[in-house]
Backbone:
């Protein structure tokens, strides 16, 4: 699924070169790797606290399934450390530093590019860090604040907020953890109403590379070193960097979010399957009638558009499905939005008049945002290649629709030749309150502030039977997003290609000047590049050849 197989191999090799290569991490096959006795002592020390487990590949309870949800990027670590406290995080970092073991950090493992995984690394899992606290009297927000540890998943956050008649701006998939989603910016079903996830963060609590405990907020930063001494300043640069700069600054302990009033949620969803050569016209008809509404609707509306192409595994009939889901922050009637609700619910009648008679729609009300989230299906393990684009509202046009349709047609023709060929799209409707935060107030790409969609297309394969990434399918995704570049500006850090060149991902995630600012902050907090991952800030920075203080040796 990538360009061609040799191009895929070349891209993989280049990725290895781009990563700082003089750190000389210790690997399990090397003599520097901790001995059986040293690993046993480490396990005993960590388990003595009653709050952590250490696993090596020889242990019977070593995970046998995928360590990340995207099996295409899963790398097998050298050992896994399950931490549950500041103390166990520090001990894990000390052990990795002592033996020069690369560090990867994982929570729920939903990272499409695989930032939570690294071959032969010490994989620090925060999955067991599950504390949630609510402060209804916090001074930062009159509707209350919620603090979630880094292993908490969004469904757990929504459940706790619901107990207080509140909601938090978080991910659509309730099994995604709060940490990686937030550090990358975070789009949500509630973003058009309340902004991106990072627009709603009050503070971060983390462990830095020197093992200090750090609290960062708009008031500044407070640090508590491992010897117990404390310092504070009004420097807000780390707080700024963490709100969209990715996961290369430390190990997150917890994040505090602004809460909002909960509400009833109304959802209209329609699914229109179509088989045969003309199936892409279904998408064109649906999108052309929906598009004008999306640019004008109140912030209380959000939604998703999901076009897909594939073949039925039994009948081998090939075609596609167009799914549209409109979500309303409020009930389906009796509000100031009744006129707009009618515009959306009238759309199926227009589609029928245009000849689309094989679809189905439903209108459903949920008593709360949490109840709506309970209806969202879980993500399953799969091998996937994904690309992303931030489609700009002022560039939305018939030409944009034609581009999508053309690529759906190409995918359909290829699927008829190879029934395993597939293409899945997800257009997250943004805009609204996302536009309210000034550009550069947080380090997400400026394209977010004028985007109408965060649009991704992906292709999947079953690695049990397809052992080599299918080059043609991957190239189809690449070609599509290349053509979408004329309508987009930037990419979503959490949903984009994992094999871009350094100049590409720096530009597409942040822009050159913003990246340079992030790198300066990174160097001040992590001068030895302890925390690194795919396409993260400092991914290609070599602190040996280019020391953070500018002094070699």
Residues:
């Amino acid at each position: 699924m990538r360009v061609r197989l040799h191009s895929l191999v070349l891209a993989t090799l280049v990725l290895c070169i781009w990563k700082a290569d003089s750190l000389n991490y210790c690997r399990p096959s090397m003599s520097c790797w901790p001995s059986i006795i040293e690993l046993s002592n480490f396990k005993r020390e960590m388990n003595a606290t009653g709050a952590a487990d250490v696993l090596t590949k020889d242990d019977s309870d070593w995970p046998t399934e995928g360590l990340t949800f995207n099996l295409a990027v899963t790398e097998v670590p050298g050992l896994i450390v399950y931490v549950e406290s500041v103390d166990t995080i520090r001990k894990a970092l000390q052990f990795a530093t002592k033996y020069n073991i690369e560090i990867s950090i994982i929570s729920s493992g939903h990272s499409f590019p695989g930032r939570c995984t690294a071959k032969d690394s010490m994989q620090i899992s925060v999955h067991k860090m599950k504390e949630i606290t609510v402060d209804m009297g916090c001074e930062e927000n009159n509707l209350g604040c919620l603090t979630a540890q880094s292993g908490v998943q969004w469904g757990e956050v929504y459940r706790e907020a619901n107990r207080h008649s509140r909601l938090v701006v978080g991910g659509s998939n309730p099994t995604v953890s709060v940490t990686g989603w937030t550090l990358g910016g975070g789009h949500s079903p509630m973003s058009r109403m309340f902004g991106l996830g990072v627009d709603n963060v009050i503070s971060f609590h983390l462990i830095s590379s020197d093992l200090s405990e750090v609290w960062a907020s708009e008031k500044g930063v407070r640090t508590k070193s491992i010897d117990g001494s404390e310092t504070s300043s009004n420097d807000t640069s780390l707080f700024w960097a963490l709100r969209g700069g990715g996961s290369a600054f430390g190990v997150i302990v917890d994040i505090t979010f602004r809460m909002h009033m909960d509400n009833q949620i109304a959802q209209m969803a329609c699914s229109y399957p179509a088989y045969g050569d003309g199936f892409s016209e279904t998408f064109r008809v649906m999108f052309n009638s929906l598009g004008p509404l999306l640019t004008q609707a109140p912030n209380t509306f959000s939604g998703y558009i999901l076009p897909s192409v594939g073949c039925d595994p039994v009948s081998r009939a090939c075609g596609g499905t167009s799914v549209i889901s409109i979500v309303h922050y409020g009930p389906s009637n009796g509000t100031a939005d009744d006129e707009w609700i009618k515009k959306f619910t009238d759309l199926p009648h227009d589609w029928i008049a245009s000849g689309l008679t094989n679809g189905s729609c439903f209108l459903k009300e949920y008593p709360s945002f949490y109840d709506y989230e309970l209806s969202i299906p879980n993500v399953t393990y799969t091998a996937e290649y994904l690309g992303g684009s931030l489609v700009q509202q002022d560039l939305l046009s018939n030409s944009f629709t034609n581009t999508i349709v053309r690529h759906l047609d190409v995918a359909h023709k290829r699927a008829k030749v190879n029934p395993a060929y597939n293409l899945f799209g997800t257009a997250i409707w943004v805009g609204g309150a996302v536009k309210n935060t000034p550009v550069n107030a947080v380090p997400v790409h400026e394209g977010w502030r004028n985007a109408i969609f965060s649009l991704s297309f992906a292709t999947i394969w079953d690695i049990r039977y397809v052992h080599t990434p299918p080059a043609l399918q991957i190239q189809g995704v690449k070609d599509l997003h290349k053509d979408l570049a004329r309508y987009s500006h930037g990419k979503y850090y959490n949903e984009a290609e994992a094999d871009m060149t350094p100049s590409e991902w720096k530009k597409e995630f942040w822009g050159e000047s913003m990246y340079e600012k992030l790198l300066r902050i990174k160097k001040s907090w992590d001068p030895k590049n302890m925390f690194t991952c795919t396409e993260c800030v400092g991914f290609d920075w070599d602190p040996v050849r280019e020391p953070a203080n500018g002094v070699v040796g």
Notes: The first strand starts at residue 53 and ends at 56. DSSP finds 15 helices and 20 strands in the chain. The chain has three domains: 21-125, 132-261, 265-507.
